[in-house]
Structures are given as structure tokens and as C-alpha cells.
Amino acid sequence: MPGTGAGSGTGTDPGTGTGGFPGTGTGGIPGGMPGAGSGMPGGIGGGVMTARDRVAVLDGALGRGYEDFDGIILAERSRAQRQSNEVGSDPAGLYNEQAGAGGMPGVEFPGQGQGEGGQGEQGGFPGGVIASTGTAGQGPQSGGSGGSMGGRQGGPSAPAEGAYPVPEDIPGGDNDDVVARQIREAAMNEPDPELRERLWDEYRRYTGLLQ
Amino acid sequence: MTLLMRQFFKPLHVFSVVLLMSLAACATTSVKSTQFVPIVQGDVPMDDALLLDVGIRVFDPGIDEIDEDDLDRTNPEIRRAESRYAPYLMAETLQRSGNWGVVRVLPAPTTTMDVYLDGQILLSNGEGMIIKVTVTDSTGMLWYTREYEEHISQYNYDLTQRQSHDPFQVIYNNIANDLLAFRQGSMSDDQIRTIRTVSELQFAANFAPEIFGSYLTKNQRGITTLTRLPAENDPALIRILDIRERDNLFVDTVQDYYATYARQMRGPYDAWREQSFTETMALEEAERSARRRFITGAAAIAGGIAAVGQNNAGAQMAGITGVAAGAYLVRSGFERSQQAQMHIAALSELSASLEAEVAPKVIELDDRQIMLTGTVEEQYQQWRDILMEIYLTETGGL
Q: CB–CB of A120 and B271 under 8 A?
């Protein structure tokens, strides 16, 4: 396992747990896989912590791992969406003449009309898009499961009012595409200030505000 | 006179019978689908617990199943590309039906779902498609194995048709409808709940076998059953469900890769299929025609030779004519065979062109999956260690 190192534990004994993974990642996944935290604090056998305390600390490490994971997935999905946008719906140019936005044959996206009784116009986004099924502060921050193909529940298309204020440099999201809207909503509802700021950074990058 | 006529016509009569039999044997019934089979939408269960999640594995390209005769008209690289394209269309179709929970193309065989759909492509040439489908559930029960065959007409390649669906959309709709029919006809609500519980605990057991391995047992027939159930508020289960949410996100991310891949492939693939359709039809016609000419030519020669052997001069003359006509037919049969070879060469050229376009995209798709899988696996390993440490702490193992 790459990046095994001494943890910087917060317990009374020096931690010897596995440290974070280096940020180099494997093969170009953006950002690599940062560590879940700062190693297992307290070390094994540190006599001060009770079992309950220890479990709480380990749960904290797990939670930080989730945040990192969510951030990585979010970044990866943004990257995938950017690539999808670059490719376009009809890269070969065979269908644009009449189909407009195109899309996959046999796949009717919301707002494009329906063929034979398809479902999904209530929510799901077209392939390659994150659907938000998670509740703020609960599910994975990058949107909940089941989004790519419409998802089981789909996601709301209208921007929701977030639980946390929008930074001053962020303009209104009226022109946001689906991904930008998802990142925006995730950021507005992210209780962790550090992760929230990363989400806003991702939003700035995605929408070109940093250029 | 009557006897003379009878003698004269006897060999010709035999020839006619042979000819008719030959033509009858050669007759090919090519049924082209003209009716679009829509997706059937079942009664959607109101209870989320009854919605089964479906995982579709990358199809077997069926390269090992290709007949020797078909090897020169089948491109393995295109089959590999199709083996990733067809599952995506299948997943889209099932998801659109609204009859299932989430439907995903699975990035790894170990990804846990309620129902698994495996496919093997047995034919795909633009004119016809045959897919062998096997459906199982998380308990290991085999639902069924069926072959789906569809032959289409030029109409399916009309721009208006292609814009609304894949030329072979009907095959996916048929698979989706059969899957629904089986679930409705053969699975009780209790069975569905069991499948969902098993898949949940399978994920847990795969992730942390020391903690969750004892909840399931597999019998000699490979069927998994529940041994016991964890408490609903079991903290270990709650943690594992949080992790499963993340795993779902990972699988969703892979769907994004597939969506892009399918969009990249669609245009050139459709163009290839349309051209392949034309060449395949011409090839089949040339082969049929050649075969027919060989058979009728050979029959004419045989009949003619028999007639030449007659004592009657008229019959002999007819026999000579028959042999000459037969020889002509056989020669034209060879010409048709050469035409067929030209069509095979054209197909090969078309395929090489598409292969150059899609093969790198297949590699890119696979690479992205492998990289992301490796990344999340690293994270998973770390979570496994933490879960185990928590478990040991809570159970007094530390």
C-alpha cells in the first residue's frame, strides 16, 4: 500500500496507524487519494481512551475518509462531465441536423418528449450527470446514488436554497448546467466548511470563474 | 407418339423434380421486423423495498463462439466495442422502463446488485443481432437463459428512426419485457425482499467478511441463504450502509464513462452498421444465388447426361442442351461466389475502419475504470481496517 506512514495521532501515545495515502493518486485520478485523516490516534494500547472514545475517534477517521472520497468522486464526475461536454451528444455529426441536442438513440431525456411510456421525466438526468438524492449532511456529498441513468428518485432540477450562504464572488446560478447546479447545491448544503470551500472551488473551476 | 413423348420428357421430368426440390431447399425465409415492440411498463411497486436493482455486466463479445465460416466477416475488436456498448443500451432501456430500481453497467464482477444480467453477443452485422442473455439474482438463483434474435430492414437506418432509437432497440425492449414478465410471474414479494436483503448483506460480507460473513451461507448448489439478520440499529451495519452509498457513487461515476463512450461510438458505429447491413445483404444474396446456381447447374448436368444416354435422338439433343445449360449455371455460380468474396472484402475494410476509431476508445474506457477502481479500492482497504478496528474495540477484541 503506498504511503504508509506514521500517523499524527491526537491521543496520548504516539500513533502508529496507517497514515494517509499520498496525493499522487493512481494513474491520473484528480487529486489522488488523500488519507482518511491523520492516522489512528492514540495508538493501540493507549490506556487513557475508553473504548467508546476510541470508537468515536475511529468513526471520525471514517467520516473524514468519506469526505475525501466524496470529493474525489465529485471531482472525477465533474471531469467526466467535462469530457462528455467536449465530446458532445453527436460527435460524428450524423444526427444534429434534425435531432437538435441529439443524445443516445432510444433514450429520451427529460424535456425531449417520450416515446413508449418511458419513465424518468420526473427527475433523472441524462447519462453522465449527477442526480441529487442525498439529504444535506447525510448522504455522500456528491449527490447520492443512482444518478447516471435517471436514478431511482432522480433529482430536483430547480436550484434549492442551501443551508449555508453562497460566497460573494459566486454569481446567480441561472445559467448553470446540470453539473454546475449539482456542485452548487452540494456546496450550499455542505456543513463541513473545509469541504464546502473545496466544493465552491470545484464550482469555480467548472464554471470558468477562475479563468 | 405418346410413348415417344413420355420417353422424351422422362429425364426432363426428373430434372424438374430435382430442380424444384433444390429450390425448395434453398428457400430462405428472412423475416424482417417491421413492428416496433415497445417497452412494457409494469405496475410499479409503491414500496421501494420491492424495486430490484439491476446490474449489467460487460457482455461477452462471443469471439470464441464465432463459426469458422464467419471468422472472415467478424471483427473481434468491433465485438469488444459492442460488448461495452450493448450493455449500456440495455441499462438505459431497463432504466427507462421504470420497472426497476437503479440499473447500472457494473465496473467489476464483484459489484453487488439484486439482479444480474449477463449477455453474450452471438451475431452482430448490421442486419441481424443475436444476444444470449442469462439472468440471475443475488442469491445465486438462475432466472433464465434465453437467446434473442432480431433481423432488421433498411428502414431501421432511416435518420428519423435512428434519432429516436437504436436500430436494434427492439431486441433490448424484448429483453426488458421478458425480465419484467419473469419478475411479475415468478417472484413473490417475499422472494424479492429476500433478494434485496441478501445483496445488502453480501456487500457487507464482501467488504468485511470477519464482521458480516456469518449472516449468509451458501449451499452446495451455490444458492445463498440468510443465516440470521443484524439488528436494524447495528452500528456496524449502519457504517457499512454508508460505505455502500459511496460504492454506489463510484458505480455511478463509471456510468458517466459509459455514457461518454456510447456517445463517442454511436455515430461511427451506426454508420458502420448501415454499410455493413448493405454489404451483408448483398453478400447473403450472392451466396444464395451462387448456391442455387451450383445446385441447379449440377442437376441440369446430371439430367442432361442421363438424357444423352437415351436411345432417342430428341432426348439426346435435349440432354446435350441441358448439360450446356448446367455448365453455364455452374460457371455463373462461381462468378457469384467471387462477388460474395468481394462483399466479404468490403465488410472487412469497413470493419477495419471502425476498429481504428473505436478500439482506442475501448482502451480508454477500460483504463478509466481500472484507475478509478484502483483508487477506490485503496480507500476501501483503509475503511476495512478502520471498521475492523472499531469492531474489535466494540467487541472487546482490543
A: no
What span, in angstroms and rounded, lies between the C-alpha atoms of A73 and B62? Answer: 33
Structural element, H or E, at residue B134: strand B128-137
Cell 500517523 sits on residue? A7
Rg (CA), chain B: 30
Q: Is B263 left (phi over 0), alpha (psi -120 to 50) or beta?
A: alpha
**What does the pLDDT look like over A107-160, one tens digit per residue?**
433 333 333 333 333 333 333 333 333 333 344 544 333 334 444 333 333 344
CB B120 within 8 A of CB B60: yes
pLDDT tier, A35 (very low <50, low <70, confident <90, very high otherwise):
very low
Q: Tell me the three cell numbers of residue A168.
A: 460573494
Among B246, B244, B238, B248, smallest CA distance to B391 is for B238
* Residue located via cell numbers 413508449: A116
| β-strand partners of B144 | B135
| Grid cell for residue B49 | 423495498
The C-alpha atoms of residue B284 and residue A63 are separated, in whole angstroms, by 62
Task: Output the nine-digit C-alpha cell for A158.
Answer: 430547480
Nearest to B151 by CA among B167, B139, B138: B167
Contact at 8 Å (CB) between A71 and A46?
Answer: no
Q: How many Å apart are CA B90 and CA B25, to the nearest integer?
A: 37
For the record, the C-alpha cell of B332 comes out as 455463373
What are B111's strand-pairing partners? Answer: none
Rounded to 5 degrees, φ, ψ at B241 are: -70, -35
Question: How far is C-alpha B219 from the chain's CA centre?
Answer: 31
* Residues paired with residue B130 on neighbouring β-strands, in sequence order: B123, B149
Q: How far apart are CA B243 and CA B235, in angstroms?
A: 12
Q: Which residues 6+ apart lie within 8 Å of B397 measured at CB?
A: B391
Distance CA A8, CA B275 (A): 64
pLDDT at A139: 45
| B210 vs A: CB within 8 A | no
Q: What is d(CA A137, CA A157) in angstroms, rounded to the nearest whole number?
A: 19
User: What pLDDT is stored for residue A138 in this prediction?
Assistant: 41
Chain B positions in Cβ-Cβ contact with residue A149 (cut-off 8 Å): 91-92, 95, 102-104, 255
> Which conformational region is residue A153 in: left (phi greater than 0), alpha (psi within -120 to 50 degrees), or beta?
alpha
Instruction: Give which of A163, A64, A37, A62 is closest to B241, Cα–Cα.
Output: A62
Q: Are A37 and A20 in contact (CB under 8 A)?
A: yes
Specify the 3-state DSSP secondary structure of B337.
helix
Helical residues (DSSP H) of A88-127, grouped into ranges: 96-99
Cα–Cα nearest to A174, from A158, A190, A186, A150: A158
Asked if the C-beta of A141 comes within 8 angstroms of chain B's C-beta atoms, the answer is no
Question: Any alpha helices (H) in chain B, and if so which ranges?
Answer: 2-26, 76-97, 159-164, 169-186, 189-207, 209-212, 235-308, 313-394
Q: What are the residues facing B133 on neighbouring strands?
A: B119, B146
Torsion sign over Cα B99, A158, A74, A191: negative
Strand order in the sheet with B54-56: B103-105, B54-56, B115-124, B128-137, B142-151
Q: Give ipTM to 2 decimals.
A: 0.71
The interface residues of chain A toward chain B in range 89-108, judged by CB-CB distance below 8 A, are 89-95, 97-99, 102, 104-108
Partners of residue A110 in chain B, C-beta under 8 Å: none
